[in-house]
Each structure stands twice: as structure tokens, then as C-alpha cells.
Amino acid sequence: MAGTERLASLTTYTDEARIALDTLAGRATGLLSSPSLRLGVTGLSRAGKTVFISSLVHNLIHGGRLPLFEAQKSGRISRAFLEEQPDDAVPRFQYEDHIDALVTSRVWPDSTRAISELRLTIEYESASGWNRMFSSGKLSVDIVDYPGEWLLDLPLLGKTYREFSAEAFEMAELPVRADLSAAWRKLSATIDPTAAADEMVARSLAESFSAYLKACKDDGRALSTLPPGRFLMPGDLDGSPALTFAPLPGLSDDRARAGSLLAMMERRYEAYKTHVVKPFFREHITRLDRQIVLIDAMQALNAGPGAMADLERAVMEILACFRPGRGSFLTDLFSRRIDRILVAATKADHLHHESHDRLQAIVRRLADRAIKRANFSGAEVDVLAMAAVRATREGTVKQGRETLPVIIGTPLKGETIGDEKFDGETETAIFPGDLPAKIDTVFMQDEDAPAADPALRFVRFRPPKLEKTAEGITLSLPHIRLDRALQFLIGDQLA
Asked: Which Pfam families does this entry report, sorted A to Z (predicted)?
């Protein structure tokens, strides 16, 4: 399905009118303040959204080492600082708490559970004398952090309850999911959709369905395509009727009888779309100018080809939900378009740099296939292998006559390699292995596919101890290619 067709199915004419009015009101307010850019940061759970935002802000505020971020490298940024965010109804991204967790406690901050926002303002000198005459030399970047699981709900706007149910059971029967979904499918098979609506039956089905989705998310499977997203991250909707529904099997095209279980499920599914999914799309996604999608490919690689294929499906769904392209002065008054999208594999520090190109090639494969399914006319899309916070350093060890490239860091407590279990305090040198030269093998699911390489060892590490200068000043958070990400996402705005 082309991107324009997919987007058309997500909204009605009324929705588009509301989006246009919201955009116009926002543009009018912006005329009275400094230029701003809304940067969306998303990804599936544990992809590192919170860490990415914290490191981005920390490095800009503290003058971090960003040699490929041109405005910083050339000394044109005079200062970067946090300001009060413009949206009073959106929770603030708790930057200070997250930095304290990373720097002081050396623990990873809590994952994104809901939408949050932070305004970072950059004062700079334009590289162009002409621009210096007409520009204030000030850019406010409104960073919007939101769960990728919620983004995967957007395709539901174009699906009926019966289509959603049929797809859910089709996915549940895939080999990588069949055992996890068995209990829910067995329970569903005992239910008569035409029977009278029963709250306890609906609740039992919803709880069993949610347990299956949560099991899919565990490290052993690391699956990504798990809508409805609020079943995994309900927030203040926990226990509400809008989240007390589940797919039903073998539905016919016959109209649901009033008062039946099927009629209840259809009504609650439509309520979920109306009161949860549509407002999220209208109030947040349609207001974005730039977007970064973070991917934990390492976790999927650990879990095997089934998880990689599922991650590919999730990336395809995510990219198809954005509004890409470039507008004109007139159209921009009524509609925002995302003109740059970066798809980034995180945790590149879990590999030796010799495998970074292969990790980036895997992300390129994920993104390219998704882009072919959507109309990305006018939008720039790039891919990157990065680590927003580098938790390891590189070294070599002798093993017999061989010299092996290793990464050195402190594995999280409980991480294991073979029979060795780490205590969370001891620094260790690990040979993570090499990603395969032929990346197609990591996506192969047939019986002839080669088995996963047992030499690949991806473990999670604690945040690093920050270095200090001779004067005792703590340096900014180390990273891998955060500067490249910044240059792509906002570099042109500081030219």
C-alpha cells in the first residue's frame, strides 16, 4: 500500500479539518517567538529513546565531542540550554533525573511509558552572512518522546474489528508465536461471539490476549509487532472498557446482533480507535517536522530470524504511519510534513567497530524494504548504527596465536555468557563475535537457513564511568555517531 493511500485510510475529512486548524493555530503562535522544530523520538521498548534524548541534550549543553556536527565543530554554537516547554498538557521529559541515573548511579533510566516533551534552545551564529542579517540565530528544538508501541496502533485506524481479529490470529499462529499464544487461542475457541455480552468473559479474553502480547515482548522472543500498544503500556487507561476487548476467531461478515459479545467487542475496539489512537495521531504525530526511529537490532539478533522478520514488519508499519514530504509556504500553514527521517540501530557499542558497517547494512535492509512500500517523495531518509551513550571501549586479547578484538565494559548484573554470570560490578573483556557478512542470513526462517552463530555474544552493560579533565571537570557522555545523527536531524537548521 502506498504511503498516501495508507494515510488516507487513517483520517476522515473531519480529522483533516481539525489537523489543519491545529496547525494554523500553532503556526500563528510560532510567529511571535523564535523559530522552532519538532523532533519526534520513537522506537520500540528498550531501543534507548530515553538515553538518546538525555545524551543529545547533555552533549549540547556541556559542549560534548561532536566532530561531525558542523555547527558545533566550527564553533558557531554559543550556548544550548533548556527552556519551558510550549505544551502545558504534555508531561515534561525528566532530563535531570535521567542524567543523575546515568552519571551518578550508573544505571539505565526507566523506559518511556508515555508521551513527554522537552524544549532545547540553541543560540548560534549562522555560517552565512546573508542569514545572519535575517535570522535571530536561535532555534528551539521541541523533542517529543513517545513509545513506538503506540505508533504501531495507527494502522488500526484503517482496519475494521473483523480485519484486526483475522490478522491477530494469523500472526498468533506463526511458528515464532504459536506456543506463546496457545492459551489465548484455546480460550477464544470456547467463546461464542453471538452469545450475550458478558463483562467477565470480555475481561478474561482481554487478560489472556495481553499476557500473550507481553510474552512476545520478553528477551527470549524479542518480537516487535504487538498492537494494540496500550495493552502493553496502558497508563491511566488500565482497566477501562476501551482496553477490555480482544480479537475473536472465525468471524463471518454478518452484522453483529445487538447485545452480543461480538457487538461489545466491536464497540470497544472502535472506542479505542476514537478516544486513544486518533487523538494521539492528531495531537502529536501530525505536528512533527523531523523524526528518528530507534531500533534494538541486537536484541532481535539474539532472538533469531523470527524476531528479525517481526522487527522488519514493525519498521514497515511505523514508517508507513508518518506524513513524509516537503511542503510549500502555503501548504505548511495548514499541514506539517516530516522532511527527514533517521532510522538508527542503537547499542553499536555492544559490537567491535569492525562490525558496525554490517549492523548499519542490516538497518538499511530493514528501512529500504519499508520505504518501497510507502511514498516517501520529498523526504530524506537515512540509516545509522550508533550508541547514544557508549558503555564500552575497545581492546584486544591474545588467545593462543590469535589476537581477538574485544569490547571492555561492566556487564549488567545477571547477564550471562555460557555458564558465566556477571555480578554488575566487575569490568570484563568480551569477544562479541562478528555479524555475518551476508546479512540476508539473519532474516532467513526456512529450514535450510544456517543456525545462529553461537560465537555472537550480545550482553547488556552498565553506563560508563565518566572521564574527568586534569582540572577535575566531568566530561560529557561518550557516544558513537551521535554527532552524525544531530547533523542529519538539525544541522541544516543551523546553517
From this structure: DUF463 (PF04317)
